[in-house]
Design brief:
With about 650 residues, the chain is α+β, with helices and mostly antiparallel strands. Helix content is about 20%, strand content about 35%. It has 15 helices and 39 strands. The strands form eight sheets. Strands 1, 2, 3, 4, 5, 12, 17, 18 and 21 form a nine-stranded antiparallel β-sheet that branches. Helix 5 runs parallel beside helix 6. The longest helix has 18 residues, at about 1-20.
């Protein structure tokens, strides 16, 4: 009897082995290889040459009709190669290369699984092939890294229960730690970076998230494995949060989303680099997003914004009371007009607080007068709006203010990425496009390609930006270290509204948080260089117009830096230490470099730019910038013929130049 059972077991095992199928797909340059095993489960692994990066990791989707990826029957496997380009809009380059090799796995269970290998990394996605709604109950996504490497981890700041963590502003610094030491009770948002052997880097991200929740990650505190976590769909909604501007779940359903027929689900990305700087050049999130749904983009105008909130409406030496009133905003418009700044922003306070009604304007504001004055001066007006009041009257709000001449909205306090919130972003983008309005999403998750699909979505927060200096101590917020980490991580996902441009600058000894007289950590030149290093198509001048008028050289330079680019090239950079980038608009190159609190001498290799012998307007840290952070010197220089430019960066310092 035992012999018969053993024989049957051996036969069953042999049958299972025969049923399992392995597939391989490589990047166009042959450097990366993914292996996909289809059997009782579906696993993938990733390697660079003979170096393992990701060990076999299981993926699946649990639906109301069974689990895709568990015992699924394969119908066919198809490989293909693609070579092409994408014309980009309001991005770090005008043209994005789109070359990849693809493996398409089609299953009899009503779904497909797509793997793409780029020279810059791997991506995969599930897709429903069914002509009916499928309820997605859960998704299994895991990454079993080949070794217990170190990683740069952006934890969710909130440390409460799971629901508290799912409700967050996606703002925090980066914890540098081993994968096996990740907190098993604290969610991680993406992008996150893993430091593999030999200087290799992996960046985990996602793209084309539509009608689906965003993805968090979590470790187990023991192994080098992370697993995906997504917010279930809200079962009910209540109004609450900051000044009752948010729509909060009252409970959660037992599923993530009800899919559309034949819906493709988000791309899961593991980007690959052999040097830190390559992460700055990576285009995977943009290229994997859905193409533009806005046929005419001629009305979408990137640019800079004179902003009120960070400087606490801090204009002075005027003959009126500065604040949230018509005179103050006309003053901001005059300042913007004098300096060729495209927009001003009316932040929180122009609409009656707590009424949640964007038509209830405070008596001190004459909105039509402000907008009309801006038209006369060639300056557009953008309005801040809380999430709930904007959502509840969305078309009426967009139609009314568009007809008045308002150019866009900064929508704030969204603080989630469940499927309902993701849907809001798409609805808001489409409605704003209908009325030719820009959207800057604040208090929200990182971009996942929506800026390609709706180019009027001109910027995103989801960044631990300069607003933190209004209330955080040095121990709570190390700005300069964050500044040389975030370009490789959060900025990997897309543009970020960091709100740079501080004219009061500080060393660790002189820094203090202040709401009414805020300052930056680091030097003046560090602030100037951020306009080149950070990707921000709608870019704030955060400080007071009064202070900018007192600093004409810096102001002139800031307003002259483009906000979108024809070409970007990462120069030698090291995560958490320093970052250097060159960007071109037309025939003019701009170069920016930032350091953490460690002073350093850099030799910037500009030979790929072919600008040897050309003149440049350069800003350096001053000789006393380590003591007085505002100290800088401006020089007209000639780029060495060999392109090797030596610069010194003070603690928390920077360097920036515009090539003539």
């Amino acid at each position: 009897m035992k012999r018969m059972m053993m024989a049957a077991l051996m036969l069953l095992t042999a049958g299972t082995v025969l049923m399992a199928k392995d597939y391989t797909v490589s990047s166009p340059n042959g450097q990366l290889t993914a292996k996909i095993a289809v059997g009782k489960s579906i696993t993938y692994s990733l390697q660079a040459g003979d170096v393992a990066l990701v060990a076999p990791s299981a993926i699946a989707m649990k639906t109301d009709r069974g689990t895709w990826g568990e015992g699924s029957a394969l119908r066919r496997a198809t490989t293909s190669a693609h070579k092409g380009t994408i014309k980009a809009f309001a991005y770090k380059r005008a043209t994005v290369t789109d070359d990849y090799n693809q493996l398409l796995l089609q299953f009899k269970d009503g779904f497909a699984l797509i793997f793409r290998l780029y020279d810059e990394g791997m991506a995969y996605r599930f897709a429903s092939t069914q002509k009916r709604v499928v309820t997605i109950v859960d998704e299994q996504a895991e990454i079993r890294f080949a070794k217990d490497w170190n990683a740069y981890i952006p934890y969710v700041r909130d440390k409460g229960d799971r629901e508290d963590q799912l409700h967050n502003s996606f703002e925090n610094g980066y914890t540098h730690t081993q994968l096996s030491q990740l907190k098993p009770t604290q969610l991680i948002f993406s992008p996150l970076i893993v430091e593999a052997d030999g200087g290799r880097r992996l960046c985990v991200a996602e793209s084309d998230v539509e009608n689906y929740p965003g993805q968090f990650w979590i470790g187990d505190g023991k192994t080098a494995c992370i697993k995906g976590v997504s917010a279930p769909y809200p079962s009910g909604i209540k109004i609450g949060g900051y000044r009752k501007l948010e729509q909060l779940p009252t409970g959660r359903e037992n599923y993530l989303v009800k899919s559309r027929p034949q819906q493709a689900f988000p791309w899961r990305i593991i980007a690959y680099a052999t040097a830190d700087g390559q992460l700055l050049d990576n285009d995977m999130v943009y290229r994997l997003a859905s193409p533009s749904r806005v046929s005419d983009t001629s009305w979408i105008r990137p640019g800079k914004v004179a902003w009120d909130w960070w400087n606490d409406w801090g204009i002075y030496k005027v003959n009126f009371r500065a604040g949230i009133n018509t005179q103050t905003y006309k003053y901001y418009i005059d300042f913007a007009s004098r300096h060729g700044i495209e927009y001003i922003l009316l932040d929180e306070g122009w609409a009656t607080i707590r009424k949640n009604d964007l038509f209830s304007i405070i008596p001190a504001i004459n909105m039509k007068e402000i907008v009309d004055y801006g038209k006369e001066k060639g300056v557009g007006v953008i309005l801040w709006a809380g999430y709930y009041p904007f959502d509840k009257d969305m078309e009426r709000v967009c139609k009314h203010y568009s007809e008045m001449g308002v150019k866009g909205f900064k929508v704030d306090f969204i603080n989630s990425d469940d499927a309902r919130i993701v849907d809001f972003h798409y609805r808001a983008a489409a409605m704003a496009a209908k009325y030719h309005l820009l959207i800057d999403f604040h208090g929200t998750y990182k971009p996942t390609g929506l800026n390609r699909t709706y180019p009027n979505v001109i910027n995103f927060e989801g960044v631990n930006g300069q607003e933190q200096t209004k209330w955080c101590t040095m121990q709570e917020y190390d700005q300069t270290t964050y500044d040389v980490t975030v370009p490789f991580a959060r900025m990997f996902a897309g543009p970020m509204d960091y709100t740079q441009g501080a004219m009061i600058n500080s060393t660790p000894k002189s820094y203090a948080p202040s709401n009414s007289r805020p300052m930056s950590q680091g030097t003046r030149t560090h602030q100037l260089a951020e306009y080149v290093v950070f990707l921000s198509p709608l870019n704030m001048l955060c400080d007071s117009p009064t202070r900018y008028e007192q600093e004409p050289e810096c102001t002139q330079f800031i307003v002259g830096v483009p906000t979108v680019w024809d070409e970007s090239i990462a120069l030698k950079s090291e995560i958490g230490q320093y970052v250097a980038v060159a960007r071109r608009k037309g025939n003019r190159w701009y170069v920016g470099a930032l350091t953490n609190w460690t002073p350093r001498d850099l030799t910037l290799d500009l030979s790929p730019l072919r600008i040897g012998g050309r003149k440049a307007d350069a800003f350096y840290d001053g000789i006393n910038a380590d003591r007085t952070a505002e100290d800088y010197r401006r020089e007209q220089i000639t780029i060495p013929q060999d392109g090797q430019l030596k610069v010194h960066l003070a603690p928390g310092g920077g360097f920036v130049m515009a090539v003539e």
